[in-house]
Amino acid sequence: MRAGRHFLLRGESLRAIIEGIPAGYDIIGPVREKWAVNLAVLDSADDLSLNSRSEESPGRYRLRDENAGPGEARPMNSAKSFTHRARETLYRARLDEDRQWQYRPAAAPKVKQAFFGLHACDIAGMSVMDRTFNKRFRDAQYDRRRQHTIVIGVDCFEPGENCFCSTFNAGPTLTNGFDLGLSRFGDEYLVEIATDMGARIMNDVDLKPAHRDMLELRKKRAASARAGMVRAFDLKQAVKVLNKNYEHPYWFEVSERCLSCANCINVCPTCYCYQILDKSNLALTETARVRQWDACQNLDFAAVHGGNFRPNRADRIRQWVNHKLNWTIEQYGCAGCVGCGRCITWCPTAIDITEPVRRLGGKEIKLVA
Amino acid sequence: MSPDTFLPQPAVIKEIRAESSNVATYTLAFVDEKIQSHYRFEPGQYNMVGLPGIGEAPISISSSPDRRDAFDHTVRIAGRVTTALSRLAIGDTVGLRGPYGHPWPLDELRGKDVAVIVGGTGCACIKPAINILTAHRDEFRSATILYGAKTAPELLFADEFDRWRDRGVDVYATIDSGNKLDWPFHVGVVTTLFDRLKPSTDRSAALMSGPDIMMRFCVVDLLKRGWSPGSIWLSLERRMDCAVRMCGHCQLGPKYVCQDGPVFNYEEVEDVFGVVA
Question: Which residues in chain B are closer than 8 Å to A105, comparing Cβ atoms?
Fold first, then answer.
């Protein structure tokens, strides 16, 4: 990190950053809805949620009115809602005059997107998803969206009760994957310009050089944020514990509470699974083959003709926890979880993805705090 | 891989042969001759076969890879796509993309005693490997096929058994139940034929295809008979929507059946395949 690239910005100049984003980009930031903050497309900088802070515990989310910075109320949805759309057309087919199907690719999404106020965990979530969609096989739609993405991140100094991003080194402060990084210190922001795009956005913004003390203070606040994450665990140990307890009755016990509602999957920044379906016109002469989000908690997720490979909720919860914390490591070289805590917050029955690690690990697992 | 990962290519049905009351073999060729002439697959691979408005399903290729002008899909009427497929006629087209997946390890099998253990429609995905075994029989130390089905009509490709035998492959068939008038041969599940296998040595190899439950029992029996986990290969079937490691449906533990499989060495899936030995 080069000190020369850090600057100081007065809080009231935040909107200048938003105004500095090149024309043609959809600007997506935290917006207060009635009872939650969501990432949504901003009409103007006035839409930004700057006066709420969120409080989470398992199965619970509340907003408190308070003068806060962007991102201090953790949004329910993640950047996934915009990079991996809930429903998207893959291609179209049309029956021609000779009654032959003609296939044509779907139009490439023209969208350009700038995310404002993402936490490090959500930026890490984007990079996990990049490994799924752009690794051995290229997903044209996803790829196109990601090529035109600006990320303006913000440090998280006050993690919530459900947060455990330190487990995956996915936070709490920004390390990579952003164009501009912000850290809030009272009425002022420390700004890190990480890319040329970041510099371009800040071109007309009034900046002062940052004092060295602020960088030190940032480190200290990051360390204390890290230490406050009570749900954090040692990932290597967790993998061992999960492998050893694949047949443990715990999975049946926790499944008694699971509603198979798939909230955990919808809010997860890295859950990518989707199904492919055909949408036809009434005359059955035109079809769009679309993909839409699917969830391994759904009963028919692993169903084939004449059978279902995961008919019990216990099978499906075990699948999900292992996929997130264990198997993605073999598949993509990183965990499939970034510790954002959303699945814990938004589970209607307060199921906690870190619980099996603690419960099954017994004394083997050393909690950080 | 083309930039349009999901875009199918039309293929025309050249021939349809009924294999049993609900199984048929479709001979297909890509409408675009250039695509057909460049199309290559390995035994054990599959295509995504689709019909607009109906959907897509992974279906294994059942013809010999040596044939270049066309290829076969042997299909049992089971779900939405296969039912729609059964209503098509010669000259109709389907949308295809592929081939996908990890094939049978034929190169590793040369010089070995190869056992092919098949259940029911599972014969479709192993048939190209049988074609290689029969066509290049001298490259393998021995070749034995054990084929079990519920009833006699469900034994696919029965008209080819004699030809396989003529090429020096031992073929044993069994059905789960039947009366002596219709089926004067062996009756019992496929594991009851295991005494016909050559005793296991470091040159033994087994290829397996069929329902999961059958393969679990077969694995248990082979392990008891001293076969090593690494000498067993199996072809798995799972729900697949994308076939390119993205949609998540086919996962078996950390494996994607669509690309890491459908053919696995048993050692790769030992922990998650559910064999209780």
Answer: 4, 7
Give the ipTM of the model, two decimals please.
Answer: 0.88
What is the CATH number assigned to the segment(s) B9-100? 2.40.30.10
Nearest to B92 by CA among B61, B49, B35: B49
Q: Is the pLDDT of residue A205 over 90?
A: no
CA distance A323 to A271: 10
Query: What ranges do the domains of chain B cover?
Result: 9-100, 106-273
Q: Is A149 helix (H, G, I), strand (E, B) or coil?
A: strand
pLDDT of res. A45: 86
Cβ proximity of A159 and A225 under 8 Å: yes
Task: Tell whether A83 lies on the interface with B, counting CB pairs under 8 A.
Answer: no
Selecting from B78, B95, B246 the residue whose C-beta is nearest the C-beta of A132 gives B246
Distance in angstroms (rounded) separating the CA atoms of residues A184 and A50: 12
List phi, psi (to 5°) of B47: -115, 155
What's the rounded Cα separation, in Å, for the pair B113 and B222? 14
Q: How close A304 comes to chain B (CA, Å)?
A: 6
B208 pLDDT more than 60: yes
The confidence score (pLDDT) of residue A362 equals 65
* Mean pLDDT (whole number) for B239-252: 93
Comparing alpha-carbon positions, the chain B residue that sits nearest to A91 is: B7
- Residue A193's pLDDT is 93
Contacts of A270 (CB under 8 A, 6+ apart): A80, A125, A128, A129, A324, A328, A336, A337, A338
Tell whether A323 is within 8 A of chain B (Cβ).
yes
- Identify the architecture of domain B106-273 in CATH: 3-Layer(aba) Sandwich (3.40)
